[in-house]
């Protein structure tokens, strides 16, 4: 196959930029354009809820690449302009400012949009955290705030609660689920995380629906639970999940479900690929469609998309993986265990704050967890979940 003469990448963050870099590494010499709605140089998101929010890192430290490295890519970067439409047939995107960008191939890497609560807009002091500007606004607000309520018991909510406690705020975390991160790590580890947060002074209101946000004179004053209990606050963070940023693809001709639906090669249509948080791909090893919201996936999937753009025929068959840092705990999760999978500790001791564990369903291992034991978890992962990778395509050079 002749490589496309030009490639347009929409979304120039972890997944989009990695795709561009992998293309050049594989010797691609054609025209590359990266379009992003944000004005900033590409930056990494994991530090936003941790080091950047804590004030330990200035924004420049979260940059994915230096200006010189970006320059060396030999690509055209169009920043601060949002794609508002795509014609998948002609592979041309229209932007908010009226630009029309056409190419022989298009890569969709637009990530996620945060979900919001009704009444959130127009109430000062209520935040979501997805981008750098969100993190800086929240950081400034927390510097002058005393009481924070975090709504959402997932990874992001738990990380923000941990960081805010580190800043000395009075923190309450409310969420519908009965344990922290229960959907992803199961109830046993979720309960352990809950104890960690409680020991550090976070008040948990789990299994509690948030009925409404309360406000006075346009400023948030707290949150009301469905039980009727008020949770007073001068800052509220809404971390109730995200949805794939596919609004701009309505009418594009692509199939949109929970993300941009693609095949096992991450191909959404002739000459159109999706990568990163927005991509809902068929996992050949697992025999089902997956969409992964984690940093490692953004880089790994980009390697496969780049290779396939250049004529390879490679399935993407990752072992799903994410990490999270909360207080002094570094947690790594490999695989996709069901919340009620049976958990057994294989090494270390939860009481000592270091252990590795496996999740079993019907006798089969479906997940591996490391709690301050990253190396041991990696070894277990390869031993127990390696078969998922089947024909793992590429080294991530
Ligand atoms: C606060 C935070 C903390 C995180 N912590 C962790 C962690 O500890 N561990 C972990 O594994 N993962 C973590 N993640 C997840 C990880 O950062 C994401 O999985 C990763 O950023 C996905 O990369 P992406 O390029 O697919 O999407 P994104 O990084 O979201 O990038 C999408 C890009 O597309 C642009 N865009 C969107 N719509 C348009 C449009 N219409 N036109 C043009 N451009 C558009 C956006 O501006 C953005 O730059 C975290 C995420 C957040 C937000």
UniProtKB/TrEMBL annotation:
<feature type="domain" description="FAD/NAD(P)-binding">
    <location>
        <begin position="6"/>
        <end position="302"/>
    </location>
</feature>
<dbReference type="Pfam" id="PF07992">
    <property type="entry name" value="Pyr_redox_2"/>
</dbReference>
<keyword id="KW-0274">FAD</keyword>
<dbReference type="GO" id="GO:0016651">
    <property type="term" value="F:oxidoreductase activity, acting on NAD(P)H"/>
</dbReference>
<dbReference type="Pfam" id="PF14759">
    <property type="entry name" value="Reductase_C"/>
</dbReference>
<protein>
    <submittedName>
        <fullName>NAD/ferredoxin-dependent reductase-like protein</fullName>
    </submittedName>
</protein>
<dbReference type="InterPro" id="IPR023753">
    <property type="entry name" value="FAD/NAD-binding_dom"/>
</dbReference>
<dbReference type="GO" id="GO:0005737">
    <property type="term" value="C:cytoplasm"/>
</dbReference>
<keyword id="KW-0285">Flavoprotein</keyword>
<dbReference type="InterPro" id="IPR050446">
    <property type="entry name" value="FAD-oxidoreductase/Apoptosis"/>
</dbReference>
<feature type="domain" description="Reductase C-terminal">
    <location>
        <begin position="321"/>
        <end position="382"/>
    </location>
</feature>
<keyword id="KW-0560">Oxidoreductase</keyword>
<dbReference type="InterPro" id="IPR036188">
    <property type="entry name" value="FAD/NAD-bd_sf"/>
</dbReference>
<dbReference type="InterPro" id="IPR016156">
    <property type="entry name" value="FAD/NAD-linked_Rdtase_dimer_sf"/>
</dbReference>
<dbReference type="InterPro" id="IPR028202">
    <property type="entry name" value="Reductase_C"/>
</dbReference>
């Amino acid at each position: 196959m002749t490589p496309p003469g030009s490639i347009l990448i929409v979304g120039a963050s972890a997944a989009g930029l990695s795709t561009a870099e992998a293309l050049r590494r594989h010797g691609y010499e054609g025209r590359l354009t990266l379009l992003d709605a944000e004005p900033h140089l590409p930056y990494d998101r994991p530090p936003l809820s941790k080091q950047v929010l804590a004030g330990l890192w200035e924004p420049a430290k979260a940059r994915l690449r230096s200006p010189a490295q970006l320059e060396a890519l030999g690509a055209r970067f169009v920043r601060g302009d949002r794609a508002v439409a795509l014609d998948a047939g002609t592979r041309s995107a229209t932007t908010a400012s009226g630009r029309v960008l056409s190419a022989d191939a298009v890569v969709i890497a637009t990530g996620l949009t945060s979900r919001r609560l009704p009444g959130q807009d127009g109430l000062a002091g209520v935040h979501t955290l997805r981008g750098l500007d969100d993190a800086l606004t929240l950081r400034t607000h927390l510097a002058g705030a005393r009481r924070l309520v975090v709504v959402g018991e997932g990874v992001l909510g738990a990380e923000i609660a941990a960081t805010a406690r580190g800043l000395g705020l009075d923190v309450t975390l409310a969420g519908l689920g009965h344990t922290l991160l229960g959907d992803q790590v199961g109830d046993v580890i979720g309960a352990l995380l809950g104890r960690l947060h409680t020991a550090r002074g976070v008040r948990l209101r789990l299994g509690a629906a948030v009925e409404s946000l309360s406000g006075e004179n346009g400023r948030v004053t707290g949150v009301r639970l469905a039980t009727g209990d008020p949770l007073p606050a001068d800052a509220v963070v809404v971390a109730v999940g995200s949805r794939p940023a596919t609004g701009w693809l309505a009418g594009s001709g692509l199939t949109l479900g929970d993300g941009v639906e693609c095949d096992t090669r991450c191909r959404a249509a002739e000459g159109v690929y999706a990568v990163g948080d927005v991509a809902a791909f068929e996992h050949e090893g697992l025999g089902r469609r997956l969409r992964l919201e984690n940093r490692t996936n953004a880089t790994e999937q980009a390697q496969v998309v780049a290779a396939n753009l250049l004529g390879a025929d490679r399935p993407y068959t990752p072992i799903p993986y994410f990490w999270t840092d909360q207080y002094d705990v570094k947690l790594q999760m490999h695989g996709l265990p069901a919340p009620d999978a049976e958990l057994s500790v294989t090494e270390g001791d939860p009481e000592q704050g270091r252990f590795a564990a496996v999740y079993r369903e019907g006798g089969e291992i479906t997940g591996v967890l490391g709690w301050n034991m990253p190396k041991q978890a990696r070894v277990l992962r390869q031993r127990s979940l390696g078969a998922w990778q089947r024909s793992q395509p590429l080294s991530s050079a």
